[in-house]
Amino acid sequence: MSQSSAMHHGGNAVAPSPVLTQPGQMVFMPLPPSVPGCPPGLEYLTQLDQILIKQEVEILEVLTGLEGKNKYSLVNTLGQQVYYAAEESELCHRIFCGTARGFILHITDNSGQEVMRLVRDFVCCTGCFCLPCKSCRYMAYVQDRTGQILGYTSNLHFCCSPRAAIYDADQQMIAEMSGPPCVCQDICCTADVDFPVYDVKGSSWGKVAKQWSGAMKEWFTTADNFCVSFPMDLDVKKKALMICLCIYVDFMIFEYKDQNNDS
């Protein structure tokens, strides 16, 4: 089944995905009470102002150099797992298209139930950061458990620093992220790389930070660690979109950079 036929835009329900196994012995964040108006499964985010996103190291990818499916653990500051994310994509796309591939990222809770998904359909010859035209943007959309569109993420062009954006369900830009002039500083020095996020009125939504993971992991794998920070009272849908934006940035910037370093 193609990716395009596996999901539907708009209000159609998300097709059930298989329960995803959790790596290792992880302590889970306690299930919070239901919150009126909150998309089902996203209640955890009402209690968080920070979430750590840790990409798993794929041993087969390290040994063979072939791009594997990305997997992430999403944990709170106490080290308790909140969500788990796993990529669904076609092997030929990962081999021949690299970071420009289409994919579905299934984000599940600790019971293995999907709470949202990030979907990027494959589009040939797009996703370039260099040009300002809209045709070069590579849009991905975010659905909740019911299939409702929460919003979209996309790359933007940059002159001196990388930029990406968050859009609402009507594809109107509502926030923008910008990075430092040289994102490769994460391999040039042992420093975190911050990407502040502001809405279109200039109010801060927080930031996405690429964290230094240590020399062995940074230099010899493509697995990255991120921290997403946001105000505690930020709308839960916006928090969800920031999390998806972070993972989108990993695909568009850091994995692209790692592939170029390996070539």
Notes on the protein architecture:
There is one protein chain. The protein has a twelve-stranded antiparallel barrel with strand order 1-2-3-4-5-6-7-8-9-10-11-12. The protein is α+β, with helices and mostly antiparallel strands. Mean pLDDT is 79; it is low at 1-9, 15-21, 214-222 and 257-263. It is 20% helix and 29% strand. It starts with a helix and ends with a helix. The protein is built from six helices and twelve strands. A hairpin with a 4-residue loop joins strand 6 (140-144) and strand 7 (149-156).
- Unreliable stretches (pLDDT < 50, length at least 5) are 1-9, 15-21, 214-222, 257-263
Strand content: 25-35%
Assembly of the depicted chains: single chain
- Major β-sheet, in short? 12 strands, antiparallel, barrel
Structural class comes to: alpha+beta
Rg for CA atoms = 17 Å
Kindly state the number of beta strands: 12
What gap, in angstroms, lies between the N and C termini?
32 Å
In N-to-C order, the SSE pattern is: HEHEEHEEEEEEHEEHEH
Spatial order of the strands in the main sheet?
A: 1-2-3-4-5-6-7-8-9-10-11-12
Please work out how many helical segments DSSP would assign.
6
**Morphology:** globular
What is the percent of helical residues? 10-25%
What secondary-structure arrangement, pairings included, does this model have?
Blueprint: H1 3-6, E1 50-55, H2 59-64, E2 71-75, E3 81-88, H3 91-96, E4 103-108, E5 114-120, E6 140-144, E7 149-156, E8 163-167, E9 173-178, H4 185-188, E10 193-199, E11 204-211, H5 215-220, E12 225-229, H6 236-262
Antiparallel strand pairs: 1-2, 1-12, 2-3, 3-4, 4-5, 5-6, 6-7, 7-8, 8-9, 9-10, 10-11, 11-12
